[in-house]
Amino acid sequence: MDYKSFNVEIKNQIAHVQLSRPEAINSMNMDFWLELPECVKSIDASGEARVIVISSTGKHFSAGMDLSVFSSPKAAPMSGDPGRMGENLRRVVMQLQASLSSLEEVRIPVLSAVQGGCIGGALDMVCASDSRYCTSDAYFTIKETELGMTADVGTLQRLPKLMPQGVVRELAYTGRKFTAQEAKNLGFVNEIYESHEALLEGVMAIAASIAKNSPLAVVGCKEMLNYSRDHSVEDSLKYMATWQSGMFRPNDMMKTFAAKSTKTQAEFDDVWPVKGLFE
């Protein structure tokens, strides 16, 4: 499909989703918020890709929320009954939240490759991905505080699960930038690369390594890690046992053992496409 905000390519079971509005610093306009969940869900549903890489174009990854989203009378009318205005705004914010949550909800891993500035809503987005990588000149900021509002589409909920609570609070209260090296030291990003080209090469290599594994095993890993993040150890272990009793079959393991004995790469079936009830 063609998108206004992204270039999408699926090759070697890796879906590369690239923000494609460098002239606007890849700001997240209305098209972006509508297209992101459609894009990643379509990739996941097809079963053609085993991992998604999100990258960007130009000097900066993204300037974050395009203010046209909230200045749109359709999205956030500025007059009328206060109660109805509030109810409408709540639904708008929840729709924006759901757009980014799609990165967590798809079956396959999502890797974010960040160059330059990752600002405001863009930080919300990469927090929802499975892993993050960046260039040495990258920086991150909870910009909303500095603009006079509270970040509302995921950073304040997800970042404390990724970094120490006290540091997150400082970053949220001050709105200051934190650098690539600070992000690496805090465990927010997995690796730093010296250039945009090296970043894409490195992240694509990691994606290729993921794509070689049994897609059913990787899907299970993501499901369990997401569940365990939000539940107790006891509940998570029970869910793991239930998942394993239903999803585990020896087929992929036998392929792995056979490949190792012949020093070849195992070939696994894709997970089935997601279809509607009557398709």
Compile the SSE list and pairings.
Elements: E1 6-11, E2 14-19, H1 30-46, E3 51-55, H2 68-71, H3 82-105, E4 110-114, E5 117-119, H4 121-127, E6 131-135, E7 139-141, H5 155-158, H6 165-174, E8 177-179, H7 180-185, E9 191-193, H8 196-211, H9 215-230, H10 233-247, H11 251-262
Structure commentary:
Keywords: Acetylation, Fatty acid metabolism, Isomerase, Lipid metabolism, Peroxisome. Pathway: Lipid metabolism; fatty acid beta-oxidation. One of its GO terms (cellular component) is cytoplasm. With 279 residues, this protein is an alpha/beta fold. The chain has two domains: 6-211, 2-enoyl-CoA Hydratase, Chain A, domain 1 (Alpha-Beta Complex), CATH 3.90.226; 215-262, Lyase 2-enoyl-coa Hydratase, Chain  A, domain 2. The chain has eleven helices and nine strands. It has helices at 30-46, 68-71, 82-105, 121-127, 155-158, 165-174, 180-185, 196-211, 215-230, 233-247, 251-262, and strands at 6-11, 14-19, 51-55, 110-114, 117-119, 131-135, 139-141, 177-179, 191-193. Helix 1 (30-46) links the parallel strand 2 and strand 3 (51-55). Helix 1 packs parallel to helix 3 and helix 9 (215-230) runs antiparallel to helix 10. It is globular, with a radius of gyration of 20 Å. The two termini are 20 Å apart. 34% of the residues are buried. The mean pLDDT is 94.
